[in-house]
Amino acid sequence: MEIIADLISVVMSIYDGDDPIYIKESIESILLQTYKCLEFIIVLDGVHREDIIEIVEQYEVSDKRIIVLNTVKNRGLAFAMNMAISKARGRYIVRMDADDISKLDRIEKLVNYMDFNPSIDISGSYIEEYVNDQRLREVRYPMQHREMKRLFLRRNPLAHPSVIFRRSYFDKAGYYPLISIRNEDTLLWLSGFKNSCIFSNVPEVLYRFRINEKTRRRRSGLKKSISDFVDRMRVIIDLDGDLVDVFYALGAVVVQNMPNSVYNSIRMKIISNKVF
């Protein structure tokens, strides 16, 4: 596939559980970006809801930068992202979730950062978390690769939907693994670290992340916590973590299965230093 020099590919997955109002806001935040040379690849991942399909089709007709792909049934985020990335023609690939908002200069600043730092294969940014459209807090992540790798032994060092990939990332690390339950980002980061990809974060809030009941369900529960533990153990083993990292992973299983009020209180304390 021919890569177009100035083109940036934005990739998004939508499924039937997404909120149509949030989908509109998310799409608009990309179409109104200050960086205009975009292709916006939207995967309808087993979507059967007419209201969602109608919204996406209206945008597809009105803006030729939008490319819509479909799966017959819901295959999950990793599959949808791999599908979109395989069709992307941009020199950089930018993630976007269907219920979040990009600040209008997000892509311009991410592109400038990557252009200025040609050794970096992937970068995220700081994010703002919102609950019921009210700003909850700013979440910061480390900038330096070494610090990010150390943090990764215990939790992910960048916000998945905030990232921009250089195409070299997928040449080195491959596409999203399909072997995990909702931890596709963790395993993709692991493959990147193992294959000498360079990580970074832009030290500025460029992305607004919505926290809702769906987010809480994704982060908690016995099945999810066990999956998290198994995947974190992969990280600890492959990146030579220690026993303290193992105990930290076990502690996370306990926290994820606590009542909501206790879980939220502990999580607030963990990120009180604004490092998520």
CATH superfamily of the domain at 1-99: Spore Coat Polysaccharide Biosynthesis Protein SpsA, Chain A
Largest sheet report: 9 strands, mixed
Low-confidence sequence ranges: none
Question: Judging from the principal axes of the Cα atoms, what is the shape?
Answer: globular
Instruction: Tell me the radius of gyration.
Output: 18 Å
Distance between the termini: 37 Å
Short description:
The protein has eleven helices and nine strands.
Task: Summarize the topology.
Blueprint (H helix, E strand, L loop, with lengths): L3 E11 L5 H12 L6 E8 L4 H13 L3 E6 L5 H11 L2 E6 L5 E2 L3 H11 L5 E10 L2 E6 L5 H8 L11 E3 H7 L10 H11 L4 E13 L1 H7 L2 H17 L4 H14 L3 H11 L6
Parallel strand pairs: 1-2, 1-4, 2-3, 6-9
Antiparallel strand pairs: 4-8, 5-9, 6-7, 6-8
Helix pairs in contact: 1-2, 6-7, 7-9, 9-10
Question: Would you write up a description of this structure?
Answer:
With 276 residues, the chain is an alpha/beta fold. It has a domain at 1-99: Spore Coat Polysaccharide Biosynthesis Protein SpsA, Chain A (Alpha-Beta Complex). It contains 11 helices and 9 strands. It has helices at residues 20-31, 50-62, 77-87, 106-116, 145-152, 167-173, 184-194, 213-219, 222-238, 243-256, 260-270; strands at residues 4-14, 38-45, 66-71, 90-95, 101-102, 122-131, 134-139, 164-166, 199-211. Helix 1 packs parallel to helix 2 and helix 6 (167-173) crosses helix 7 (184-194). The radius of gyration is 18 Å and the shape is globular. The mean pLDDT is 91.
